[in-house]
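re: ur msg from earlier - yeah i can do the zinc ion complex, just paste it... oh wait u already did. ok heres what im feeding in:
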Amino acid sequence: MQLKCDCERVEIEFAHEPIASLYCHCADCRSLTKMPVYQGMAFEKKTMNIVKGQQSISSHQFHTHALKRYFCRECGCFLYALNRLGFVTTSAFNFSQEDQGTSQPSCHLFYGEGVIQMDDELIKYQKGSEDLKKQYDDKQSK
Ligand SMILES: [Zn+2]
Ligand SMILES: [Zn+2]
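and the outut:
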């Protein structure tokens, strides 16, 4: 799967499908997007390859937030963030509609911290990262 920033100076490729595709309700993601909920995908960092535009990537870590954010310094587009478990997370909307379609969200994270209720059938984890890590470890051990 591949993402490009709006000005197309930065191009990033992921060698594998996301570990998880989810809605996140945590304060960090809300702060990142300025939206009540974040629709994101998590990837293993080693599967990420910056195809071009490394010199255009700028990062920021606000002291109270666990997420380190990476942007295109030319167009301001949010590219990805690194979370406290070392996973890369990026917005589902950084990908083409086709790619989004193959990786629909399977759960909600940090639902207990959220500010919006969502009426769907997905699993709603009240907390987040540990649950996600467990889901990932289970997957690996299969
Ligand atoms: Zn750009
Ligand atoms: Zn979050």
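cool cool. Residues 24, 26, 28-29, 38, 110 surround zinc ion (ligand 2) (CB under 6 Å). ping me if u need the other ligands too
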